[in-house]
Amino acid sequence: MLTIDHLVKRRGAHEILSGISFQARPGRVTGFLGPNGAGKSSTLRILLGLDRATSGSALINGKPFAQLANPLMTVGAAFDGSGAHGMRTGRAHLRWIARAAGLPRSRVEEVLDMVGLTYAAGKRVGSYSLGMGRRLALAAALLGDPPILVLDEPVNGLDPEGIRWIRTFLRERAEFGNTVLLSSHLMGELAETVDDVVIIKRGKIVADGALEEIIGTHSTLEDAFFALTAERAGDTG
Ligand SMILES: Nc1ncnc2c1ncn2[C@@H]1O[C@H](COP(=O)(O)OP(=O)(O)OP(=O)(O)O)[C@@H](O)[C@H]1O
């Protein structure tokens, strides 16, 4: 369970997050949706202990990231890019993380297989395509077999086959009871993948609920999104 509670982030005079609250629950894929600059990455960075909140909290199973006993086995995270040094091979990158976490080498081969990257595991990460880099980042997130996944724009750079693969993969994780939170600004794609939707705009939550509730009387999630955000067009916050 991920619990964001009255989270505020200020940078100088600029309020990036204005007291946002939402949850991502086990057994559900939760889509965190919003236009560029809305505050999605800022929220996920605080949740994963990469940045500090001004006030409020972002908790993973009731604890801040820094207090997790086994972070890699609790939450898997993937942000922009592969997260690996270009001169390293994909396999070496994963082995390094696995060793630091006390995981067996065999787990590296398992996650390479899970993300379909075994064929390129011996190649330098610098030669990977964008999509291969995303798969490597996902493999790293899966190393500790965590019950929670937090993914920032996971379909960016993936080709149609890759997008279908990740959608199926994340749906399966949720069906096994995992908690999956993913951010995106691609509404059409998100509608195919998620159970719940949280929409953020200019640091404020403008909608939060089950996909069907959010779509409501609109024909698509995209239509609902524009209607919801347009209703607040006069809101300067
Ligand atoms: N390191 C930083 N220093 C100053 N401002 C920042 C920093 N990181 C983000 N911001 C600002 O915070 C706001 C939210 O950015 P954030 O990256 O969280 O949005 P986002 O919803 O993830 O957008 P995108 O879809 O473009 O990734 C933006 O106005 C951005 O300019």
UniProtKB/TrEMBL annotation:
InterPro entries: AAA+_ATPase (IPR003593), ABC_transporter-like_ATP-bd (IPR003439), P-loop_NTPase (IPR027417). The keyword Protein biosynthesis does not apply. Keywords: ATP-binding, Nucleotide-binding, Transport. SMART domains: AAA. One of its GO terms (molecular function) is ATP hydrolysis activity. Residues 2-227 form the ABC transporter domain. Belongs to the ABC transporter superfamily. This is ABC transporter. It comes from Paenibacillus oryzae. The lineage of its organism: Bacteria, Bacillati, Bacillota, Bacilli, Bacillales.
